[in-house]
């Protein structure tokens, strides 16, 4: 019989003092304001969304990565 491993949330107890938990990097697309059109292909959108689909969002991120 194998031991049962329970999922316990990380409360930082095993981390050395002063070390912050890892946070995902902020992508450039998250800082863009909605403009009523896709930021990549210019397809008309509502005033909430920034991209028409995941492919455009990923392509935008990839393009930004190469044009730094």
What does this structure look like?
It is a single chain. It contains one helix and no strands. With about 70 residues, it is mainly alpha-helical. The N and C termini lie far apart (about 55 Å).
Keywords:
mainly alpha; 68 residues; single chain; 1 helix
Give a brief description:
The chain has 68 residues and is mainly α. The chain has 1 helix and no strands.
Helix content: 10-25%
- Beta fraction: under 5%
Task: Give the topology string: H per helix, E per strand.
Answer: H
Largest sheet entry: none
Mean pLDDT: 80
Individual helix count? 1
Low-confidence region ranges? none
Per DSSP E runs of 2 or more residues, the count of β-strands stands at 0
Oligomer: single chain
């Amino acid at each position: 019989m194998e031991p049962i491993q329970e999922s316990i949330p990380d409360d930082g107890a095993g981390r050395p003092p002063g070390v912050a938990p890892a946070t995902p990097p902020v992508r450039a697309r998250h800082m863009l304001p909605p403009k009523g059109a896709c930021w990549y292909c210019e397809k008309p959108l509502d005033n909430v969304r920034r991209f028409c689909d995941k492919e455009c969002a990923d392509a935008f991120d990839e393009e930004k990565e190469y044009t730094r």
